[in-house]
Write a structure and sequence with these properties.
Layout (H helix, E strand, L loop, with lengths): L12 E6 L11 H21 L5 E6 L10 E7 L5 H18 L6 E5 L2 E6 L12 E6 L6 H20 L6 E10 L2 E9 L5 H17 L7 E5 L3 E6 L31 E6 L1
Antiparallel strand pairs: 1-4, 2-3, 3-5, 4-5, 6-9, 6-11, 7-8, 8-10, 9-10
């Protein structure tokens, strides 16, 4: 429904949350529902149209003139190493799919490899949120568990520190470390840049600790997805260290249709 015309690959879907407590019910005024949905479509159009010129953007749309209850808040965050065109395609896919996946909920979140998009009937700006998310992990275990976990802890915390100190435009960090003669550990940490440095650091440390607590810290790869931040590690390079943000020269609207691509060697566990 939204997005630039591009030949970029179809984004890889990871997970979504429809927050049931925010769903419209039979007692909700139809006028309020109609205003909210109209405002939501306007919000998603705004977010999609800015996704080829911004890695992160927040927006607000509308207000129910009768009750003031239909205002919609939203944001997207693209991974800090992806190109502008990739960001645009990802956000467009997220906007299209999320309203299908969560048709009656007022608060939702969706994650892809290259972006995250969320919207709500409450303000999201500058608020640390760790309430909803997911784990993704590789099924293969590391044999030298203790040594690997020590290396992972120091590497992830270094990436987290780089992200937390990144400023108000980008909070993104990556670090590498040699594990064996033929294996390198690659780590990534990212926060929404509206967070303070302290809140970003807290979110990332909590995400890393979650990996240890759930015993996903000695795998061949794992991720922790949260609304305000995410962390990931792998034994192969999965990010672009030399990426630069280059907006495309022109964009044109088009309709997007996507299918979900599952990661064949990953299992997903959900904590909502």
């Amino acid at each position: 429904m939204w997005g630039p015309k591009t030949t970029e690959a179809i984004p890889n879907y990871l997970y979504h949350v429809c927050i049931n407590a925010t769903a419209f019910n039979n007692n909700t005024n139809n006028i309020t529902i109609n205003f909210y949905q109209s405002n939501l479509y306007h919000l998603l159009s705004i977010l999609s149209s800015t996704s080829t010129t911004h890695e992160f953007h927040t927006a607000t749309a509308g207000r129910d003139p009768y009750t003031g209850s239909a205002i919609v808040y939203g944001l997207f965050l693209c991974r800090g190493d992806v190109a502008a065109a990739v960001c645009g395609v990802c956000v467009a896919a997220a906007a299209t799919e999320l309203v299908k996946l969560c048709p009656i909920e007022k608060e939702t979140i969706i994650w892809y490899d290259d972006c995250m998009l969320r919207y709500s009937n409450r303000s999201l700006l500058g608020i640390l949120d760790e309430q909803h998310g997911a784990f993704l992990y590789n099924t293969e275990h590391i044999t030298e568990k203790d040594r690997f976990e020590g290396l992972l802890n120091s590497t992830m915390k270094a990436a987290a520190a780089e992200a937390a100190n990144g400023g108000h435009e980008k909070k993104f960090g990556t670090k590498e470390a040699y594990f064996t003669g033929f294996q390198t550990l690659y780590s990534l940490a990212q926060c929404t840049p509206d967070l303070s440095s302290g809140d970003c650091n807290r979110c990332l440390w909590d995400a890393v600790d979650d990996l240890y607590y759930q015993r996903y810290s000695a795998r061949h790869g794992a991720r922790r997805l949260l609304p305000s931040c995410n962390v990931r590690y792998e034994l192969y390079p999965f990010y672009n260290k030399t990426a630069t943000w280059t907006p495309p020269a022109t964009t044109k609207g088009r309709i997007f249709q996507y299918t979900f691509h599952q990661m064949s060697n990953y299992i997903k566990t959900f904590y909502v």
